[in-house]
Specification:
Length: about 325
């Protein structure tokens, strides 16, 4: 009788435990599948959460004050400062990744001039950045539309940067090339294997591709003689020799016995680029200029042109920064 009672007890216990085990296995399977799908579908959300945790310290180039914002807000402000919001979304994404890469590069190669900040808002030294208030002022009635577009682009690529040999690159960019980008070694010197000359189809279609600057004889003489040039009475002999890069950018120009870098002449006379010709005429000098910017790295107009031909932001970046890898931080 005792054995019969024990047998009934164990049979009843088994009837309870077995269904529970089956339910647990089924629940675990459903749960694992749910979270597996959830992780794929919410990659952008996870990146956005991660970005909210990251902060960026920005030094104002004018006041030297330091402002701290989240990474997402920084990338929105950098894109707002550096690229036209009417450009194609794939071009805007490429710009955001370039800006994020420049930020990470600056963090690693921090200069004392930053006073503890990660980067400045100087487009000449690092890259531009404008606050929400400045965006509203810049865009006026288009603020909400442009802001929404840039936010969407940022959220899709926020975790991505460009690397070469495992390090963030100098992700240089400029407005418009002269039809080909420049070798960084020709402009700045040094070795940048990923900043080499590539074709930039479409740049010559830009309405801002060509520009002209006229300066008087006195303005021209004053600028170059301060730097050691000696100009005679015969203006036709002022410009002696011009050395150009393979793309046509002025690398060196000899004026009045003094050799100047093309970038110096660009700075002295506020030219849009160093790709120029100069003609002495009517006692003054006329500069005919092609392109806009230093010409190294990604052409923003070229990126927009590529995007409108159906290229993705990844293909744009591969073209302008050959040999680099797109890495998620």
């Amino acid at each position: 009788m005792k054995s019969y009672t024990l047998l009934c007890f164990f049979l009843a216990l088994a009837m309870i435990i077995c269904p529970l085990c089956s339910v647990k296995k089924a629940t675990d399977a459903i749960s694992n599948e749910f979270f597996k799908n959830d992780s794929v579908e919410n990659t952008e959300l996870n990146a956005a959460i991660k970005a909210d945790d990251a902060t960026v310290k920005i030094m104002s180039a004018s006041s030297k004050n330091i402002t701290q914002v989240g990474l997402r807000e920084y990338l929105i402000g950098a894109a707002a400062a550096e690229m036209s919001p009417v450009y194609h979304e794939e071009a805007v994404k490429a710009q955001i990744i370039a800006s994020h890469t420049m930020l990470e590069y600056s963090k690693i190669h921090k200069s004392d001039d930053l006073n503890g900040a990660d980067i400045s808002d100087s487009s000449g030294t690092h890259q531009g950045y404008i606050s929400t208030d400045a965006q509203k002022e810049k865009w006026g009635e288009n603020y909400e539309k442009y802001r929404e577009k840039i936010e969407k682009c940022v959220d899709e690529v926020i975790g991505l940067t460009l690397q070469y040999n495992g390090e963030p690159i100098t992700a240089a960019f400029h407005a418009i090339s002269n039809g080909k980008t420049e070798n960084a070694s020709d402009v700045w010197g040094g070795n940048y294997p990923y900043l080499i000359s590539v074709t930039s189809d479409g740049d010559k279609l830009s309405p801002d591709y060509s520009s002209e600057v006229s300066v008087s004889a006195d303005e021209f003489k004053d600028a170059v003689e301060k730097q050691g040039a000696v100009l005679g009475e015969d203006a036709s002999k002022w410009i002696e020799e011009i050395k150009r890069t393979p793309t046509g950018m002025v690398k060196e120009i000899t004026i009045g016995g003094k050799a100047f870098k093309g970038t110096d002449i660009r700075s002295y006379f506020s030219l849009k680029s160093s790709t120029f010709t100069c003609t002495i005429k009517d006692g003054g000098c006329i500069f005919a200029v092609s392109g806009y910017g230093h010409g190294v790295g990604m052409s923003q107009y070229g990126a927009d042109f590529m995007a409108r031909q159906g290229f993705s932001y990844k293909e744009v970046l591969e073209h302008y920064y050959p040999g680099t890898a797109l890495v998620e931080n």
